[in-house]
Amino acid sequence: MSRRELLTLIGSVAGSAVSYRAMAGMGLVSESTYKGPIKLEGNPRGASVLILGAGIAGMVAAMELRNAGYKVQVLEYNNRAGGRNWSLRGGDSYTELGGFTQKCEFDPGLYLNPGPWRIPYHHHGILDYCRRLGVALEPFVQVNYNAFVHSTEAFGGKPQRYREIQADYHGQIAELLAKATNQKKLDALVSKEDQEMLLASLKSWGALDKDYKYAPGEASSNRRGFQKAPSGGLSARPVYSTDITGMSELLKSQLWASISAGHNYEMQTTLFQPVGGMGRIGEAFGRELASVIQYNAKVVKIRQDSKKVAVTYVDAKSGGEPRTASADYCLCTIPLSVLSQIDINVGAKMQAAINAVPYMSAVKVGLQFKRRFWEQDEHIYGGISYTNLPIRTIGYPNTGYHSGGKGVLLGAYVFGPNAFEFTALPPAERVKKAYEYGAMIHPQYKQEFENGIAVGWHRVPWTLGCAGGWTDETRAQHYDNLCQLDNRILLAGEHASYIPAWQEGAVTSSIDAITRLHQHVVNR
Is 231 helix (H, G, I), strand (E, B) or coil? Predict the structure, then answer.
């Protein structure tokens, strides 16, 4: 398997969390440490903090420091709060690097989340801020057994139902283990008493019959679905499914890679999404902190001395004369991909850390359709379909079921090498590609498509990528230096966490940074 194939195979399950999963495999990540609202005890004596960036990390810091008695000011590049916490809705306009401007033409109530789109139940920090800010949540469907898994190199390119592939794979693995147990090949590993319980568990887990075989019948049909489902009246008798896929074909298809999606810690139910789009969180923070945020402020220089930090910024839209904001301390949440290009006087170790972290690539494409054909024709309500096509993912809306109106699919969630290829295209071409590839899975695209919008994160001016891409080597060399207080400057964000590419990383990084900053201020 080539490196490219390995990256895309891993990414086909994790999406923007590719880095997270890679580090999880190396034992380098842990769950959120959030234990509840922090208490910054002690008098800051009027100390001031300048926060750069009104993303999640910056706004968490602004809210908590303001509540603790600090004088707070936030400089934000965009004309809105939230950063990567962002939803595109009808009427919105977005201009990327290179000058391409897209106007979102979605109907009212429909949206695309170009950045984060789900919140795991164990991301206690971001969930707590949703509660405190009154952001309503609803379930996010990660695993839909009736969605598709698809490969152009298997089953003649025909999409397969998730439940069928999973049932056949689990069933035949269970049968193999049961056969090995019955043939006494596990005697050295499992006691006789445990073997009896193992067989019982394999029969239950794999839907095996009385002879411990995964075969057409009631047990297997209750997992993979019936050829004719049970009903009522004279036609009530079910017809069991007989088209079980053999193990060799399953393995060669590589569709088994997709059925593990819901097993990963960060993807396990329950997951949530804000009602009305992920951007509702940023909007709520923006309302809470309206008096302290300066929008359209493009930072061009950050200078510190023994007494203060001075930041030079210009109007992000018109340029104009530079202006200066100053404070006793600065918490910088600007993504490292951008910060590495800004004139900042920090120590050599922090500067090396800022320069060491590349940013991962990702593209999302939202497609609006005349009707919700995935529900009406294919009975897919929420969840995700996976494919080996460059679009990688099709995400179905988790709200508005049976509404009968129009709908927006996440028509592509592209990452790795394919994301660079998509990003190199003009936005209209990205939408076209998502439409063409998606039609190979859902032929209804050709009759039902209306419009779309595409965001390539390496062309997003305020991030130049979707998330920090650490390796174990760069973490060992630079991570602590990145997070240390450098005289009067401190950094925070998902890039300064062990939960990269997730909002929880931004929350916990921010809380850790301001806790240490507050201790420093109080001690002084």
Answer: coil
Rg (CA), the chain: 26
Rounded CA-CA distance 333/459 in Å is 19
pLDDT tens digits, 78-96: 999 999 999 999 999 999 9
Q: What confidence category does residue 9 fall into, taking pLDDT thresholds of 50, 70 and 90?
A: low
Number of Cβ atoms within 10 Å of the Cβ of 123: 23
Residue 17 has a pLDDT of 44
Chain-centroid distance of CA 68 in Å reads 32
Give the Cα separation of 431 and 412 in Å (integer): 9
Phi, psi values for residue 227, rounded to 5°: -70, -40
C-alpha closest to that of 412 among 3, 15, 28, 122: 15
Query: What pLDDT is recorded for position 35?
Result: 83
The full length of the chain comes to 524
Could you report the per-residue pLDDT of 396-406, keeping only the tens digit for each?
A: 999 999 998 99
Query: Using alpha carbons only, what angle is made at residue 302 by residues 69 and 80, rounded to the nearest 5 degrees?
Result: 65
Looking at 64-140, which runs of residues are DSSP E strands?
71-75, 88-89, 93-95, 101-103, 111-112, 119-120, 137-140
- The CA angle 296-422-119, to the nearest 5 degrees, is 65
